[in-house]
């Protein structure tokens, strides 16, 4: 228990230092590259920095956990603490457990942060502030299907939870039956409320004897039950930075309508599967490090471990982006690489669990 606390303390310490350094570097580098575009008020600038910090944490936290493990292992080797622990009868697994437990706990916390919409969409909000001096730019000319209707929004305002210039087309047996026309709709009580709308109804039989097109006015109509503004903005704009709740709701909604759910599945895999490459990589790297500084060129090992980690992280991140853009299936780009890393890490764990410790 004492060894567990000792290693955990140093691992968390290195993790905080490395994450802080990487986040400051990324945010500072972004600021230097966009100084001319950030001619905005002090309040918006502060919010921009906060969102950029969230985005940096979202991208760099998994990598920081790996770098922190490498730094902690080097510290244990250089201080001869690792040899001392083995001399006292601790096994490789006993030394490895703190790294795996802390990394898994941090990844679980990392996943829970994606239940916060502002965290999940931090980069999008930061870009909107930089380009338009506001959190969310309106989504224009949104045309989509919902159940048996076709819906058009001239402008969607997600923050205000409202839409302007609405058209809802209803079909019966592949024939246009009626068109709902309204100037404005607001999202209230899990539905879109239209205070006043014109209903244009086409007769079933168009002939000289028919009464022609009928126009009626209706008040307080409710449409698109359960279709939240943020979900509309994300799904039909093709964005992939969902919060957990929005992603799950969007998946079931699209599935019920027999609409392709690949983007939403990719977002869910990115949240729940992709981060777990960290514990696997921690296990793999751990067993490649000798136990004594006498058999280790520390500088060479540190360089090789960091470069290898960066390459693996960049490769997995690229596969995630390719999956998000539907270039490759998300199961192939996200699930399979993580599964292979896990199986290799499991093999290493089983192999060294009972093997004797030697330099």
UniProtKB/TrEMBL annotation:
<keyword id="KW-0812">Transmembrane</keyword>
<feature type="transmembrane region" description="Helical">
    <location>
        <begin position="271"/>
        <end position="289"/>
    </location>
</feature>
<keyword id="KW-1003">Cell membrane</keyword>
<keyword id="KW-1133">Transmembrane helix</keyword>
<keyword id="KW-0472">Membrane</keyword>
<protein>
    <submittedName>
        <fullName>Permease YjgP/YjgQ</fullName>
    </submittedName>
</protein>
<feature type="transmembrane region" description="Helical">
    <location>
        <begin position="332"/>
        <end position="350"/>
    </location>
</feature>
<dbReference type="GO" id="GO:0043190">
    <property type="term" value="C:ATP-binding cassette (ABC) transporter complex"/>
</dbReference>
<dbReference type="InterPro" id="IPR005495">
    <property type="entry name" value="LptG/LptF_permease"/>
</dbReference>
<feature type="transmembrane region" description="Helical">
    <location>
        <begin position="295"/>
        <end position="320"/>
    </location>
</feature>
<feature type="transmembrane region" description="Helical">
    <location>
        <begin position="12"/>
        <end position="33"/>
    </location>
</feature>
<dbReference type="Pfam" id="PF03739">
    <property type="entry name" value="LptF_LptG"/>
</dbReference>
<dbReference type="GO" id="GO:0015920">
    <property type="term" value="P:lipopolysaccharide transport"/>
</dbReference>
<feature type="transmembrane region" description="Helical">
    <location>
        <begin position="45"/>
        <end position="68"/>
    </location>
</feature>
<feature type="transmembrane region" description="Helical">
    <location>
        <begin position="99"/>
        <end position="120"/>
    </location>
</feature>
């Amino acid at each position: 228990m004492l060894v567990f606390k000792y290693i955990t303390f140093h691992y968390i310490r290195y993790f905080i230092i490395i994450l802080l350094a990487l986040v400051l570097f990324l945010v500072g580098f972004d600021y230097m590259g966009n100084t001319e575009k950030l001619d905005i008020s002090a309040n918006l600038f502060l919010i921009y920095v906060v969102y950029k910090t969230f985005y940096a944490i979202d991208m760099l936290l998994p990598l920081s956990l790996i770098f922190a493990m490498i730094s902690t292992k080097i510290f244990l080797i250089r201080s001869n603490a690792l040899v001392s622990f083995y001399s006292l009868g601790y096994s490789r697994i006993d030394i490895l457990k703190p790294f795996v437990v802390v990394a898994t706990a941090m990844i679980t916390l990392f996943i829970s942060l994606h239940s916060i919409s502002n965290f999940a969409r931090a980069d999008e909000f930061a870009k909107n502030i930089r380009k338009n001096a506001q959190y969310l730019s309106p989504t224009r000319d949104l045309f989509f299907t919902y159940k048996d209707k076709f819906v058009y929004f001239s402008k969607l305002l997600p923050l205000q939870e409202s839409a302007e210039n609405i058209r809802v087309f209803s079909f019966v047996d592949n024939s246009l039956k009626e068109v709902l026309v309204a100037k404005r709709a607001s999202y209230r009580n899990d539905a879109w409320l239209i205070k006043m709308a014109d209903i244009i109804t086409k007769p079933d039989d168009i002939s000289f004897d028919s009464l022609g097109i009928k126009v009626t006015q209706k008040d307080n109509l409710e449409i698109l039950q359960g279709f939240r503004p943020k979900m509309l903005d994300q799904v039909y704009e093709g964005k992939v930075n969902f919060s957990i709740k929005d992603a799950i709701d969007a998946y079931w909604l699209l599935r019920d309508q027999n609409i392709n759910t690949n983007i939403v599945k990719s977002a869910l895999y990115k949240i729940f599967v992709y981060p777990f490459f960290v514990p696997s990589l921690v296990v793999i790297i751990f067993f490649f490090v000798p136990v004594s500084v006498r058999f280790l060129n520390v500088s060479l090992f540190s360089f090789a471990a960091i470069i290898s980690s960066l390459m693996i992280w960049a490769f997995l991140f690229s596969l995630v982006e390719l999956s998000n853009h539907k270039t490759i299936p998300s199961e192939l780009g996200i699930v399979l690489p993580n599964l292979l890393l896990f199986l290799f890490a499991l093999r290493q764990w089983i192999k060294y669990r009972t093997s004797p410790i030697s330099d």
